[in-house]
Structures are given as C-alpha cells and as structure tokens.
Amino acid sequence: MIALHLLTGLCVLAGLVFFAAGTLGLLRLPDPLTRLHALAKADNIGLGLIALGVLPQLVASGAVLAAAKVVAIWLLLQLSSGAVAQLLAEVAFRDSETGADDPDGAAAEAGEP
Amino acid sequence: MSLAFDALLCLLALLAALRAVAAGEGFSRVAAFMAYGLILGLVWVRLAAVDVALTEVAVGSGVTGLVLLRAVARDDAPAPLAAGLAYRLLAGVVALLVFAGLAAVVLLLPEPAPSLAPEVARHLPATDLGNPITAVLIVFRALDTLLETVVLLLALIGVWALSPDRTWAGRPAVLLPAPWSGALEFLARLVVPVGVLVGLYMFWAGADVPGGAFQGGAVLAAMALMAIAAGLLPRPVLARRRLRALLLAGPFGFLLVGVLGWVFADAFLAYPPGVEKAVIILVEAAITLSIAVTLALLVLGPPVAEETE
Amino acid sequence: MSGGALPGLPPADMLLVLAVILPLFGLLPLLLLGSRLAERLTLLVLAAGLAVALGIGAEVAAAGQAATAFIGGWRPPLGVGLRADGLSAVMLVMTAVVLCATGLYAMTGPATPRAAGERMPTAFWMLLLCVWSALNLVFVAEDLFTLYVALELLTFAAVPLVCLDGKEGQIEAALRYLVFALFGSVLYLLGTVLIYALYGTLDIILAARRASVSPGLVVALAAMTAGMMAKAALFPLHLWLPPAHSGAPPAASAMLSAVVIKAPIFLLVRFWLDLAPESLAVKVGPILAGLGAAAILMCSLVALAQHRLKLLIAYSTAAQIGYLFLMFPLAAAASAWSALAWTGGALHLASHAFSKAAMFMAAGLIAEAVGHDRIKGLTGLGRALPVSVAAFGLGGLSLMGLPPAGGFVAKVMLLSAAVHLGNWWIALVILIGGLLAGGYVLRVVVPALQRPAAPLALRPVAGWREWVALALALVAVGLGFVPLEPSAYLAIGRPASWAEGAP
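^ inputs. structure came back:
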C-alpha cells in the first residue's frame, strides 16, 4: 500500500514539474514555434504522468470505469493539444513567411535580458 | 486544504474577470473571459452544482466565447469605445457599492436558508426521475423551461433579422476564413464521433444524474461547428424545411405535450400517468436536438447575400 | 381546475394558458411557410388571441374573483401559478386590442406590392407574436422566476424590432436598448434570488404573506425596481428610449411605445402594491413619484425642442411614463382616495397605450406620404391627410388631458386623489405636465391645420391604415366616458381580497 502511494506521489510530482517547465517555456522562449513546442510536449507528458499516478489508486479501490475515463481524457487531450499546436504553428509559420506583423514575438525578443 | 483550494479558485476567477474587463486588445480579453468561464465551472463543481457547472462551461464559456471570438476577429469590427478615466472610476465605484450591498445582505440572510429542496425530494418519486434538477426543469417548472427554449429560438430570429428577409434562404458566412488545414480535418474526424457520443450520453444520463438537454445540446452544437469548420459538413442552407423543423421540434414538441396534458391528464403540461418517463425523455430528446441546431446556427450568425460561387 | 364561470367559454385556467401559448403557435407557419399565406394566418392568430383576452376579462367579471391556473397541476410553492386579477385582465385586453390594430396596420395590402425598401415582413410578424406571448405572461404570471423568463422573452422580441430596417443608427439604438434591458434583467434576477433566499418561495402571494421589512427585502426590491426603471426608461434611465422608439419602423414603434414599456411598470405595481409590506411601500412611493415628476417635466421640455415628429412622440412617451409613477404614493396610502388614484393610474396606462399607438402609426403614415418627418415641413398637412392628422390630434388630446379624452378622466382622478391626500406637489406636476403636453402636441397640429404655403407633393398611403390609427385614437378618447369613480373591476383579486380565499 505504501509503495502504491509512493508511486502516485512520485508520478504526480514529476507531472507537475513537466507542467511547470512547459509553462516556463511558454513564457520565456523567444518565438511562437518554440513556445508551442514546449507547451504541447511538456503538457502531454505532464498530464500523462499525473494520469499514470492516479490510475493505480483507482484500480486498487475498484473504480475501474473511472480509471478508463482517466485514460480516455488523457488520450483526447493528447489528440487535441497536438492538433491545436499544429494549427497554431501553421498560422505562426504563415505569418512569418508573409512577413506579417508579429508584434508578440518581436516584443518578446526585445524584452530578452 | 480544501479551503486553500477554494481560495485559490476564487482568486483565479477574480483575476480572469479583471483581465476580461480591463483595457486591452479584444482577443486576449475574450480568451480571459473563456478562462473565467472554465474557472467558474470549477467553482460550481466545488459547490456541488454539477448541472450548473456543465452548463456554464458548455454555454457560458464555450459557445459564448466562440461568438465573441468571431466578433473580435472581424476586419470591420468597430474600435472599442474609448472610455475616460472618470467613467471607468464611476463604473468601478458603482460596482463596488453593489458588491458591498450584496455582501452585507448575503451575510444577513436567514440561516439555514429556507429551501424548496425537501419539497422537491418528497415529490420526486411521482415524476419517475432520479435527477431532482431535471424534475424541477421538466416537471415542476416545465413552463419556464418550455419558454426558455422559445427564447433561444427567438434569439436566433433576432440574429437572422440582422439580414434582410430575402437572404434567409441562403447560408451563414464562412465560419473560419482560413485555408484548408490537414490537422483540423484530422482532429475533426477523430473528435466529432466521440463528441457526439458524449453529447448524446449527457442528454440520456440527464434523467438520473447531472446532465440534460442544454448541456448535451451544447456539446452536439460544438461538434457540428467543428465538422463545418473542418469542411466535413457544408454550411447549412437556412431555408431547408428539414432544418427549420429541427429548430421547431423542441419548443413545439414540448408545447404539444403540454396541450395534450389537457386531454390525457388534467392540466396543461401535466404528463399522462404511467408513461411520464417515456414522454419526458421524448421531450428532452426533441429539446436537445433543437438546442444543438439553434446554438450552432447562433454561432454561425446571420445569413449573407451570396456573391461568391 | 376552476370551472368556467360562464357557459360556453373554456374554463378560465385554460384561457390563461392559451393567452401565453396561442401567439407562439403563429411562429410555426411563419418559419415553415414564410409567405403571404403565413401573414394571413398570423392575422387569424391575432383574432383568436383577442378572443382569449376578452374571454378572460369576461370570466373575471362574472366570477368576481381572480382567475387562476396551475401549470402541470403543481401548486405553488413547488409549481408555477398563473393568476389574472382585474388589473391583469384590463392589461390583457388592452394589449390584445393594440397588437391586433398593429397587425392590421402592418399587413401588406393587396394593392401595395412590397417595396424594395421594406425589408422584414416575416421577422416582424414573428417578433410581434413573441412580444404578445411575453406580455401576456408578464400580466398573468404569479411566480418571480417565470416573470424573469417573460422579461427575457420580451427583451429578445423587442430589441430586434428596433433595427428591422438594418440602418446603422438603428443597430446602435438597438444595442443600447439591449444593454439597458439586460442590465435590468440581471438586477431583477438578483432581487428574485434574494427573495427566494429570504422566504423560500418564488410565488408572489406566498412571499407577500411572509414578507416583513428587513434589509434583505429592501435590497431585493431596490434591485428589482432599478431593473424595471431601466426597462421602462424612467428618468434618468430614459436615454435609450428616444433613439430606439423613433428609429424603429412605425408599426414596431407603436408596439414598443404603447405596450412593451408597460410590462416593467406593471411589475413595479406588483412589487410595491402586492409584494412589499405597506409600511415600506408608503416610504418608497414618494421617491418613485419624485422620479416620475422629473420625467414629466424634463422629457416634456425636451419634446418641445424636437425637430422631428417621431422623436417628439418618443420623448413624449418618456414623459408620460412619469404619470404612472405618480400613482405609487397615492395608491399605497391607506385611504379611501387611494382606490381612485389606483383607477386613475390604470386608466392613464390604458389611454396612453391607445393614444401613443395611434400617434406613432399616424406619424409613420405622414412620413411615408411626405417623405420625411421634419415638423417644419408639415404645414397644411391637415387638408392632404385629414384622417392621419385627426388620429394624431385626438391621440394628443388624450395626452394633454383635455375632456372628453381618457387621459382627462385619468388625470382628474389622480389630481383629486393627490389633493385629498395632501400631495400638493403631485397635483402641481400633473397640471404643468398637461400644459407642456399641450405645447408639444399643438406645435404639430396647429401648423398642420393651416393653409399650406406651397402645395405638398404626397405619395399615396393605404387609406385603411389611416383608419386603423384613427380607430385607436377614438378608443383613447372613448375611455373618457368611463364613470369618474373607483372601478370595482380593477379591485377584483387585489391584495385586500387575499385574506380569505387562498390561492
């Protein structure tokens, strides 16, 4: 039982670290494409780790259906965050190709210490 | 622990609300508004009002946010009104006064608050439903729900009325004026079937657990919009009889059941004894469909005179 | 089920429900057929609705008590009750008459093909039907949340009416109206929530029985009153009204100005004379009357300065609303004279509805014939459009409060109640308001009756539409022949009768 709690704690903690790293990347990285990269990758792994941590608890307490829902949520978010990151990247790429205004990225670069 | 979590939620909700009303560019304010809706949904969950939470997230944040996003994305969107500092201060002072008055009154309210909840629970068996919220909406206060579906239809008529009558046979404007994207189509192909299933489940489960016509309808509407945005479905032709019939099915199905109440039971909107649950589920199904179609059309906006093609 | 008091009529509870749902059935052909056939069917619905309203009026008169219905057979506090007392019945009939006349006025004539400029026939009919359903619900609902739904229905039906022609200024006016109306709805909902938290019921009669003066009730009623003031455009929250009511197409203006703004005022009557404890109502009445007096004086003066006919009529509406607020301190006082003030207020409400609808219709026809509505350019119009000018003048006669019009009797009742209750300032405001109304009405009518400097070039207008306007004006004048005494009909089902005969 102790081992189970330990596993859950470790996984959730690791997940939070990934979330924090992704958010830091979103705030600090210089251009839209790298920011998206940080966000999508880190969030997927972070959520995956949290789900992984919660799953054994649910299975152990007999809530198998709830466990299946957690897995489904993770899969759906995996899918949508990946696709949405791709969509945003398309827009960002088009804007940089056409040399369109990118005040956001420019401001971030200017603000670099 | 839970107190700290609640405090954090309240703080986040306030921050999101401030960001949404603060000065700035439209897009980020709408994004803050949508975030505010999601946080508010969590607040409702904490208050054990799951039905309200679902509706807030689906309609308050999702559908409304989409409408607002489309509004700020328009090229011809008018510049925001430049409100002077004095005006903002005045508005702030008025808001604070209202808040102070409300806070004082809420603290003075009788404890425990008088409630109709025991009364609802006592009469719940007579309705054959498990979810007391659904019982209130469809049985005890059926008139309100019936007229709310009419209000939704009326809102759509109001949106359509922005275009001249003769264009009502046409289609709404393009949802996303962007080039075709493989990622969007891929996402839509995978998510839409799952989402439709979720929407139908929410409606079906609503009889006994949180969920129901409004929440399920909102999810279905979102799926239809995603399919249209990804090019999987064509923009609807508004003059189609079938589409109009779908719009009318909910309010008028409900009205018909109400009128039949005079014949098969003894009052308007009374359900025939013995088959209450079957009739209620039929009514809810019709409402869900109508809400889904109406919400989707509300987001799509008024019909436009077709110049292209 | 309270059985029909009159043989041959459906039971009263059925009529109450029909008053709300019958107009909605008119939406079906409009959305599915969308043609002139649907327009004709709508007229049938209008006629049926008028019959229902008259039926309720007759039932209430015959039974001598309020008609009630319980939705789904569930009684309050769990269920929703509908209830029509004498005042409700009068409002139902008044609304039915005005809206039927509006329907006739707006009908596409057989000889007048739809002009290219006429944009919105189908939408107009749908909105008219929804306005009717919402108003009827406001007048008969006994439940605070059902009333909120009714207000929502009313808002979403009335706002698009303002911008039916789709011009830029109209859309701006409609948006401003929407903001005021939604603000009012939110405040109303806030008050409703507080009342439920205080008394555990949404039913007005049950809440009134439990109500006692407490900070919670005061805040709740204050919020609801502020909300209704915004919706009724009471000074100083009237700024949305003139652009909205003057910019709308004439048939829509008639509806908005004559009956739509009466809904929030009716609800204020419910709050302060039915729901609030008397001791509270007596204290608040003078505040409402003070705002009403300010509305009469300020908005009448502004109306005097207008250059356009429709704006003048719209400002006159904002002014005339004030008279209805003068009623509150008089009717809330515990005195024999308060019944007279009560009758006078209700009569003013009805006669204003008829005369204002007639005036907006006449103004619409005048603008259609002349091509503009600048008051300066209307000299000599009386010879060219005698019926329309007569409708405008007779409607104005009632506004001024000259005999024999309905407005005269109403003002005499309010005036004598004010004098006998010692409210001299109210009497003074009524007199000054009458003079100012005379000023702005005669500004239009006197030049119109003169000989024109140059012959006016007029486009033809359908004669029967002029007669509809005149008929409404004549109804307003005809109300002047009601007896000058407290009406027993208006006392049916009022709070004084609640002690016995529980709902």
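Residues 110-117 of chain C have pLDDT under 50 and may be disordered. Chain C touches chain B through 58 residues (CB under 8 Å).
thumbs up if we can close this ticket
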